[in-house]
Structure formats: C-alpha cells, structure tokens
Queue: 2 jobs
Job 1
Amino acid sequence: MQAMTHLRHTDAGSALDVEAVRRDFPILKKKVRGKPLVYLDNAATTQKPQQMLDALTRFYVDTCANIHRGLHQLSEHATREYEEAREKVRRFLNAPEAREIIFVRGATEAVNLVAHSWGRGTLQPGDEVLITGMEHHANIVPWQVLCQEKGAKLRVAPISDAGELLLEEFEKRLGPRTRLVAVAHVSNALGTVNPVRRIVEMAHRQKTPVFVDGAQAAPHTRIDVQALDCDFYAFSGHKLYGPTGVGVLYGKAGLLERMPPYQCGGDMIRSVTFEETIFNTIPYKFEAGTPNIAGAIGLGAAIDYVEGIGLERIAAHEHDLLAYATRRLAEIPGLRIIGTAPEKAAVISFVLDGIHAHDIGTILDREGIAVRAGHHCAQPVMARFGVPATTRASFAFYNTRQEVDALVAGIHKVQEVFR
Ligand code: PLP
C-alpha cells in the first residue's frame, strides 16, 4: 500500500524513492546543532516511521485494554491485534507456526530466556557452548554465566583479520560435548554476515542446536528460519523501525515445548493451586505477566512498513550505500576500516590515526552527524583488532549518498582539528 508511493522506476529497475520514505520519518526533518540531522547510528536503534507511531497511538487511544483475560470488547480487540502481530512476525521470519513466536523485551532477553530455560535444564559439567569471536556482549555474557554455573566451558571460534568467521576453526571446536552453538547472523561491530546455513549444517550433523542472534540481520535482509533451519532466532523491535522494549524469540516448537518457563506469574499458567501449577502451552508459557501489548502491535506495524517497501529493495539500497561509503572512506589518509569481509551489511567501523573514536564522535556531532564511538558492546572484537574503540557508521534505507558525503566531509574536519 504505502510502499507503492516509495517506488520509482529507473533504468536499474524498481528502486527505492529515498526522499519519499524519508518523509515518513518525522525525526529526519530535525536540525541538530543547527545542521540537518545525519543519522548514521542505525545499528544502535533505528528511527520510527509515522505509520508505526500511528499504530502505537491508535492502540492507546482506541483499543487500550489488557489481553487474553478480558471478556469485554476492548480486551477482545487488543488480544486480536496482539495475536495478529504475532502472526505478522511469523510470516516475517517464515516460521512454521505462530506458537513458535515469543514476544520478549529484545534480543538480550531472548538470549537470557534460552540460557536460563534451555541451558539450566540441559548443560552438564564438562559440556560446551560454542560462540564466535565477533559476538555482541548480549550473546556472550549469558552463556558465560551459564557455563560458570554449570561447570561447562564456553568455547570461541576465532575470526580472520578481515573479520570473517574461520569456518574450519569453528568446525574443529564443534565437539561431542558441544551442546549449543550461539552465533550472530550479522556482527554489530564489523558488519560481517555469517554463513548461518553452513554453521547450522555443521552443528546439526552432531545434533547440536543453533541459536542465531539476528539483532543486526532482521532490519537488512529477508530472514527465513526454515531455510536456515536454525533452532532459535532472536531480534529486537527497535532496530527494525519498531518501538523499544519489544523483541522476538523464535524457537522450534519441539524444543520450546520441552523447555521450562523462564519467568513465572500470570498468563503463563493453565491452573494454579497452592500445591501445584500447570503451565500454559507455548508461546504463553514464556510470556509471564502483562506483555508489551502496544510494543508488539507497533512491531507488527513496523513489519508491515518494511515489507511494504520490500526487504530486497532495502538490501539493494543499503548495499549501494555501504559500497559507496567504503570507497569514499578508504580514500581518506590515515583511516582504517575494521571489518572488511566480502559479505557485509550496513555497518562501517573505522579508526583514524592518532585520534580517539570519542573525539571523532563528538566533533561529528557538532556537524549534526550521529555515529557511534566506543566498543559497541563487543570488547572482544576490539581486543582482536588491537584497538580500544572504533567509530561506527551504520545505515538504514532512509540514508543517502549525500549523507555519506557529509560524513566524509565531517571526518576531514576532525582531521583538521587534530592537525
Ligand atoms: N546482538 C547484537 C548483534 C546487537 O547488535 C545488539 C544490540 O546492539 C543486541 C544483540 C542486543 O539488542 P538489545 O539491546 O535490543 O536487546
């Protein structure tokens, strides 16, 4: 529907009309320090389209009620919209069944849910969890704590100087004691796209389930959990143009059914006496208490929006931006890009000779340019490349080549300040 207004036909085929999509994002009209906002911090969180904001407002103005328990009309409407959002997520991930979609707070909570629920019941002393050297802290710390608690071992598959997973090394570490593989689909610090299908094949050969952290993949590429054949897949709504405080854990029904609840309380029960509680079926078993109803509905609207534009079209536009930005940044003397894998998505991390990332971020901010500077919650990645921090520009489909030019001009200004 709305997407049709965003398309124009060019010689290259059907391309995205970026100026039209930008009009859907009220914040992009904003001036920062008197300059037009150049928002290149999309890997941290994305901006929100009016259509998603309208869905949030509509819920609070028109249908606000608690779900699943009420017999009145508002509650029925709210329940329907919440469950419709679950169905939208199911389609978005191409999951076989809606009951395999659990609404959580975000990717972080999804990892914690699996670590607590699956991990506590499964891991034995001497078992192993295998991750990669490019994980976000959210996909390290819960496994590390779990392993410490259970006397298990956290193993790490190393990455190359380009920031690619060394698959042979990964396979070598996949042993008879590996109980779970947990891997990022796309690295937030490097932009590397991992070969998840191959990783799953390797792990499944020895019946090891695979958890995929899709926080940086879901906004940029079409996800098909059946084609990937992963056992768990997680992402955050706020990185997909949806609200904060909502995210998704997909899990294969057979696994979820065998897992105990993560949190206990209302809604996750079938019946309660003081002697015994019988738990609800999936997905409700994992959604204790009043969930983020508006958030789930907002996420559904964000998915409608993104699908209206088309993930292939989004990926093509962002790929063009990434290639253009890589070329332009590589021309800057003293700039080194960290993460040069051939398969990358929407992220450029870089360091500048003699200038700390925080100084770069601060000076760029004076130009209205929002980037991230720091360790990006991936300190082991920084250690691997021997840098304390990087500056990261990350793209969304509403970004333009002119904004990349503004970034390049901003970096030249930074270098002048330090000359
Ligand atoms: N995993 C990756 C790869 C991320 O980039 C992030 C956030 O930056 C997370 C997990 C955690 O996401 P959230 O903070 O939304 O839970």
Job 2
Amino acid sequence: MRYFIGIDIGGTNIAVGIVDEHGTLVQKLSVPTRSAQGLDAMLEDMVSACNAVRELAGMKKEEISSVGIGVPGPVTREGVVIRAVNLGTEWSNLNLSAVMSSALGMPVYLANDADCAALGEVISGAGANCNSALMITLGTGIGGGFIVDGHIFSGCTGQGTEPGHFTFLYGGEPCSCGKRGCFERYTSATALIQQTKRAMEQHLDSKMWALVDNDIDAVNGKVPFDAAKMGDETAKAVLEQYVDYMGMGIASMTDTFRPELVIIGGGISNQGDYLMIPLNAAIRKYAFASDVIAPPPAVRATLGNDAGIIGAAMLEVSAEKASKQ
Ligand code: BGC
C-alpha cells in the first residue's frame, strides 16, 4: 500500500493528513494558520505538522510517497504559487514546492485548495462515481474546482480556475484580489459576515445582537443561521439575499459548464438542508430554461474539511492516472 501526505492551507487552519492510495484518510491533525506571523512561520508549521502526523501514524519518512499541498490561490504546473490573496503578499510568485520539498526531503505536488477539495470529493465523497462536477467551497474566500473525466480541470496554463473571482457585479464591493464585484465578495463566509453586520447595524432590534453579547466583532457565519432558526426577520432577510446571490452565480457557472453535480463545501455548508433546499431553488430560478432543462443538483460535500487533505494527498496518483489516459 502506498501512503501520501496531504496539506490543506485554509484561512483559519492548516490541516495535514496521511492518506492511503485508495483515498482513505488514516491520520490527521490541524494547526492554526499564522498568516499574520509571516511566511516563514507558516512554512515551519507545515513542516512540523507533516513530521508530527507521520509520527502519530507510526510511519517512517521512506513510507511516504509524496506530499500534496492545496493552496488558497492559483499555482503553476511547476509548483509555484502565483498569489494567495487571503494569506498575504509574501505568497506571490513563491516556489512552494521547491521550498517544501527541500525542507521535507520528499517530492511535493501543488494545486489550488478548492481543486484539491473537488478531487477529494470525487474520489471518496459526494461526487464518487461522477465524471464531471463543480465544487464550490464557502470559506474565507470562495474556492471553486471543476472536475472533468475524473480529473481537476486546470486549464491550459495548469493554474486551475477561479470561480470566486468572476465579476458578479460591475463596480461592486472591492475584493482582496484588487478587482471589484467578485463573486466571493457576495457569497463567501467573509461576505456573509459583512452582510450580517451591516444588517445588524440597521436593525438594533435583531436577535443577533443577543447571540453575540452585543459585540459585533463576534459575528461569525453561523450567527445569521442560528437567529433565522429562532425566527429573527433580519437574519432571515440576510440569508434570503445571500442564498439568492449564490444561486445566481452558480446557475451562471452550470449554464456555462453543465456538470453532472454541484458540490457545496466549506464551513457554511454545515447548515445542511437549511442552506441546500433554498439554494437548489435559487439555482433553478436563475438557470437557463430550467423549466425544460433540469439544472444539476447541488449537494452538500460529505468529507467536510477532509476533502482538501484527501485531494491534496492524491495529486500524485491523479497525475499518474492522467498521464496514462
Ligand atoms: C482564491 C482561490 C481559493 C479560494 C479559497 C480565493 O480567494 O483566489 O484560489 O481557492 O479563495 O481559498
């Protein structure tokens, strides 16, 4: 049996795991993402986390075939991070595979984090047996991955796709990428938090104030859902708008690409049917000719945060399979 290490660099945590050749996660751990402490601190954390997870699994370095890393930004085929806007400016034009490979003494494969999550979900999650899928992860940013013929569609330059940054609204909200109106500025967890705070400021009678002990900085992506379930009208209106934005953007993508399935991951997807039922209705509302052409179903990712680890770990296997096709 071959084993691989997968690293998923998230805005909040870096998750690291050991995965076998069938895509089963056998050991994992996570450490906080210290992006404010700079690049070197994060590189050190990643190296120690790889060693720690291997030791936890009782495995020697020689038993690991390679390390795969999912990065929250576009990467090149050569293993260079082009930029990762949500991690800081040091993450631009960074040869992460070379740095990590020399620190770990193992081959390192790199891909976009959402592409890794998409691969993980089609290998062992919600998209198992699916030939084509669109995965959207709702986190600090919006990640997106297209799977075609069971593989990541990474485009002619190999850098993957950026569905979080298609222009959703001309001249809209400023985005950390430097553009305006990006899809992630309306539908990421960060955007939901901002929309919630704005609504709270306009509705001082909202139950959401009590949920955060009157501390607006304590608002997270769960607060509007909790308050809406308690019947709070302000929270319900925030979510209605948020899900409508999401349905409109996803319908535009599925009209363009026509995948079999849409898989929704990231922290917000933990809301389950409370999110997925209205989201499917919103996709139908905006999809082209949906009265005669059924849009693909949107389902919740089943691997949670493990999808990114599994997909990253399987990058070597996926590259081997792709080269044989
Ligand atoms: C980045 C993507 C990434 C996503 C989730 C976006 O802002 O541009 O590359 O997949 O955030 O981390």
